[in-house]
Amino acid sequence: MNMSTLAARVAQRCALHPWRVLSIALILSVLAAWATAHLPVYTSRQALLPKNNAVSDRFDRFLAKFGAASDLIVVVEGADSDVLDGYARELAVRLRKAPEIAQASDRVDMQFFADHAYLMAPPEQLNRLMQFLAEQPAPSSRAGKTEIQTLLAQAEVWLKTHPEPSMDSVDIKMAEAALAGVDFLLGQWQEWLAVDTPPLELDLAKAPGDSGALEGRFASRDGRMQFVFVHPAKSVEEFESLEIFMNKVKAASVALTEDYRQQGLEVPVVGFTGLPAIEYEEHINIHKDIILVVCTSAVLILLLILLVARSVRWALIIFVPMGLGVLWSLGLALFTVGHLTLITSGFIAILFGLGADYGIFTSSRIAEERAAGQPLETAIGRGIGASFHAVLTAGGASLLIFCALATVDFVGFSELGLIAAKGVLLILLSTLLVQPALYALLPPRISSRAAQAPASVTLPKWLRHGRYPAKLAGIIVGVALLTAALGLWRGFAIPFDYDVLALLPADSQAAHYQRRMVAESDYQAEVVIFTAPDVAEARRITQDAEKLTSFAKVQSIASLFPADAGARAAKAHDIARQINQGQWAERVDTLTREGLPVAAMASLGRVLAGFETWIDATQELAFSSGQTSLVERLESIRGRLSSLQAAVIQGESARLRTEMFWRAVLKWGGQAVNILSRWQSAAPVLPSDLPLSIHDRFFAQDGTVAVYAFPAQTVYVPENLDRLMKDAYQVSPEATGFPATHQMFAVAAVQGFVRGTLLAAGVCLLWIMLVVRRPKGVVLAALPLLIGGGWMLGLMYVCGISYNYANIIALPLVMALAVDYGVWFNHRWTELTDRTPFEISLISGRVIGLAAGTELAGLGAIMLAHYRGISSLGKDITLGLICCLLATFVVAPAIGQFLDRKRKS
């Protein structure tokens, strides 16, 4: 007994005992529904990466020690800087109270770092400060002069007696920073003289460098965006945990915004980015898209079947077994893979498109047997038996294609292959067992168009010859093979888009703010993380990373633990002693109280003129030394000095405005004097002395130290990422974080695609050869798929379609979906030996067309997805299915003519 005969007998017994079969199917469906309800969905890309390799192991170790690797970033913009600052500060305070949140930081604790600046400042700066303080006259020597007059007199003397400028032993970076500070203060002075109402404080948002650095704020370079970094208390790999975390942060933001609105305050715009926000958006959009796609595809498939068959019963006979197979495969996933990911959660639409084919093939053959006069149960058995070989060939090929994907290292593809392979198997079983029982209970009318027997087929007049002319057939096959080969060749030149953000919806908030952070700030969500066993190694890592242009900013606490901390503390004691003995706090108070008397204005003008002369000499020296950046900064300062010399002599109004500016500068200076005065208690710090928010970010419980390096460029350009990680691994082979895993993600995805596609094509062809056995049958069954695949790649290249992480799987999926077109055509070609090529095309074309239509309805609906990754997959699959369908309808009859020249015409 062959397998077709066995399948016919099993199907006939199912038709004789339909209620038993449907009862068992119902029990299995209830169990599968329960399992599906308990199936977790992992949103983290970590769930897609290969396991048990160095990159994953390093990342897992970091997660185990620090809880989470990526922060949610709350972006606050669209208001004055004071409003942004207050909103971000209050939001961070509220978030820190939530148990789901480990840290919420809107700024660095500048008070702590200022009080311990002696540990971070270069020793030569401490020495210069000590020397400056030692050279200042004692307060008693200033009798008879105001403080400002004394300072201006000293400045005049220095400008007259200072040595010639020299570039020897000049630290260019320090010189640039110092000149930028001078340029900022002079610019502020100009503004105070020019505006209608002078401000009360210096506008630190216009300070050089990071606009929020002086206040410790996390902000964009222009200060128009402020950031709150929110660190989850635990890993948010599962969507349930991620959703709780995101909802907690969003609820706090909404509540604070409402408080601002009720108080009549200016309300800023709030957005969310960072990896948690991206993964949250991905899951929400994919979940909505899956519901949309499944519902849309189900309706379209039913409508298509109804339109073609004009029978509700026939639609149910096809649709119900397919739906049960999909449900069973979901339930089985809980006990095999154990979860769904962002990739595997979309496989339902794939099975919807593929699963209907088998039911269409078998039910059409049952209808033919009934039309030939066979009793219902006999027709069911014979129809299943007659179609079994073709269904087994096509289904087995699809099953093996998915099994081939299951062998690749990229977990996203391997899990998709495993789940989809089991889905195909269960849909096949459901079609062969449940459909006969359902058909027996709900037999469609024989008069249905789908039940027409081959004998009733009539060719239109323009196809009356029944076959292509020989020369035309040769041209069709030759052109098809040539264009397919060309398409396969150009397919290797299709570029790959590595930008994960491009997969998100076009209106994605997370992608919008992430791109702006890269362009407008020194921060971004994709941070390289170094780990060190101790502070000494962390110090070495920090120093090496700061030398590299690949990193825009390095966050580390290593500078708080210098090797010479004791000696630095001793110098800090001396500085504090000099500050206190020199009565610098009292001097600043005196300067503030005295203001800027009229008698000092002439001296101020002479100082500005002398300073301009010194700038000219320094600029010439910088120009001759080739220091273009210094020359440009000095030119800006020279211009401001010229403008100020003309402005300060404009009478009492200019004096009063200058006095106000001077007092604002003194306020800032007074804060610096107070900090230096507190250094009298300077001492080396221990990790336990750090504020809790700083300690938990940089220290694990076992003493491991973390260093965070923000990339200077986007990591979604391969060249940038490769250069970044090359530099990172040179700094430390223990580098981890999103850029490291993303690099592996990219490599694994591309390699998985290449290996999976080649293996899938190989096993597909091998399976067809094994089952069909006849060389001519193998060629007729396989060539439409190969030609259609070549056309698909060629059109992708011509249309400028790029691969991405979502649509890269399109070609193997098209192979699994479209392999049955050629298989069914070959099956009918072999079965209907007395028919012309065009008659066979018309007979098989009805079934193939309906099968392709259901696939296009199921998978073409993916194009409606809001998530651009899914929609791009839908477009590519649709393109591939149309190509394979055209190859089957147009090229397959010509191929058949060459292989079977004696075929009736």
UniProtKB/TrEMBL annotation:
UniProt topology in membrane: Multi-pass membrane protein
Entry-linked Pfam families: MMPL
Record flagged with keyword Membrane: yes
Cell membrane in keyword set: yes
Cellular component, GO annotation: plasma membrane
Transmembrane segments: 290-309, 316-336, 342-361, 390-413, 419-442, 472-492, 752-772, 779-798, 804-826, 847-867, 879-899
This protein's UniProt keywords: Cell membrane, Membrane, Transmembrane, Transmembrane helix
Subcellular location: Cell membrane
Domain of life: Bacteria
Domain spans labelled Membrane transport protein MMPL: 214-445
Family matches, as NCBIfam families: BstA (NF045600)
Name of the protein this chain belongs to: MMPL family transporter
Organism: Candidatus Methylospira mobilis
